[in-house]
Write a structure and sequence with these properties.
2 helices, Double Stranded RNA Binding Domain, 31% strand, three-stranded antiparallel β-sheet, four-stranded mixed β-sheet, 7 strands, alpha+beta
């Protein structure tokens, strides 16, 4: 993804982890790398809505001039090249922990 911020180009690279889960009748799409979520009535709708929210999120950060601050706060890494690259935190794993074993 390449974002224009004035005359500068900013490249967002890597794989953005998105977790999908059911909450009632809705499918929630959540990315811990940005603490960003959306939802839909189906998985396809949740994915479509998340992509729209993602685009709006980055557009808003650029308009406010807070892109770098927010990405740094979320643990993203800035790499200087001819074009600035931002790389999200690496997804390591996901697991289910039994709550029954916690007293």
């Amino acid at each position: 993804m390449v974002i224009r911020s004035g005359k500068r180009k900013v490249r967002i690279e890597g794989n953005l982890p998105v977790i999908y889960f059911r909450e009632g009748d809705a499918i929630i799409a959540y990315s811990p790398a940005l603490d960003l979520s959306s939802y839909g009535a189906s998985l396809d709708e949740a994915k479509k809505n998340f992509n729209e929210v993602l685009d709006l999120f980055f557009e808003d950060l650029i308009q406010r001039g807070t892109l770098e601050d927010v990405l740094e706060e979320c643990g993203w890494k800035k790499v200087q090249k001819p074009v600035i690259h931002w790389i999200p935190p690496a997804f390591i794993c996901q697991e289910l922990i039994s709550l029954a074993s916690h007293n």
